[in-house]
Amino acid sequence: MQIKPILAALRRHRLATLLIAVEIALACAVLCNACFLVARRWTMIEINSGVDESSLAVLTVNGFEPNQAADVNARMLAGLQAIPGMQSATLISEVPFGPQTGAAGISHDAESFKNLIGVVDFVLAGPGTYKALGLKLIEGRLPQPDDYRPATSFAPEDAQVLVTRALAEHAWPGESPLGKDFWCDKMHFRVMGVVDHFARAQPSQYNMQQGEWTVFTPVVPGGSLAGTYLLRATPQDVQRALQAARAAVPKIAPDVVLDQDNSKTLGDLRASYFKTDRIMIGLLLGVVVLMLGVTALGIVGLTSFWVAQRRKQIGIRRAIGATRGDILRYFQTENFLIVTFGIALGMLLAFVLNAVLMKFYELPHLPLYYLPLGALALWGLGQLAVLGPALRAAAVPPVVATRSV
């Protein structure tokens, strides 16, 4: 296929060629960035919480004085554990996808943040909570009765804790975290074990790795650990057990207030937490489909116009020996050149758009592999869009040339 005649024809239609190339460039920039955003949001939606979500629910009460915490905990735990079908009821300060209650910065140095590790979620948990959550221990040991310490303020002054694999790899890369010390202000912590996954309460506020920077802290019930109860039942019974627990609260502890919004199964908490992200993914995919549809219609319209305009020229080429395949390949090559020019311009626009998004949102750089993927998609779209008009052009009979003489 001779490229020079095609380029010469395009030069005679500079404005139309430039407009369709710009449209393809915009489509390329939007496609790459929208797919990048969709992939990031979808990855976060699918984050592994590390807990047995299908069997867990959380029930939260408030409205009681701190000095009533021990009494309220005792009455609530006794009443909740008596509900038919309830496998366990334990105390926890926060659960994945629920309200965040204990985020703080930690450091390798005592009483200093010069060697900061990062901001982590401290999850305070009473006896039995580790087993109820279904966490997977991959290194070290589980909390023993002596590991549970009172927390009169934020957390115990000195505690043996479990950390997630993600936090351990960040804080002590290439080393075993067991026995390692870290501090949060004056509070000292020592790692006794590592769990595979444990998502923090609000993971989408952080990047994928930071979404699992969690410290599981054994705490004696009371003080900072009161009012939030982790319920466990079989997956078939967990919804019914939660409803029974909600209904039983006025009888168990009439002096507390049930937090309706934060008393749900963990499955419902996850669905509610990521509802906005799912809506955003739908909107982004809608924009991508609309942009690609408009681009395809533009290519079809322009090619159809050129086919009608060149009907006599096509007839002459057929009369002097050009086959249908030659005509078809001519328009496909012409489209490929226009789309390639648009893609080259679109790659530059994609980085500009990504820089704008990075300025207003906490986004990383657009990975380079999105560019060839976007280019392949637009080349395929261009060839599909041009196929109909090109086939009509190839069907023009040679007699058209003689009729026009």
Can you lay out the helices and strands and say which pair or pack?
Layout: H1 3-11, H2 14-45, E1 56-62, H3 69-81, E2 88-91, E3 103-107, E4 116-125, H4 129-133, E5 137-140, E6 158-164, H5 165-171, E7 181-184, E8 187-195, E9 214-218, E10 228-232, H6 238-252, E11 257-258, E12 264-265, H7 266-273, H8 275-309, H9 311-319, H10 324-360, H11 370-394, H12 399-403
Parallel strand pairs: 4-9, 6-8
Antiparallel strand pairs: 1-10, 1-11, 1-12, 2-10, 3-4, 5-8, 6-9, 7-8
Top keywords for this entry?
405 residues; 49% helix; alpha+beta; seven-stranded mixed sheet
Could you give a quick summary of the protein structure above?
The chain is α+β, with helices and mostly antiparallel strands and 405 residues long.
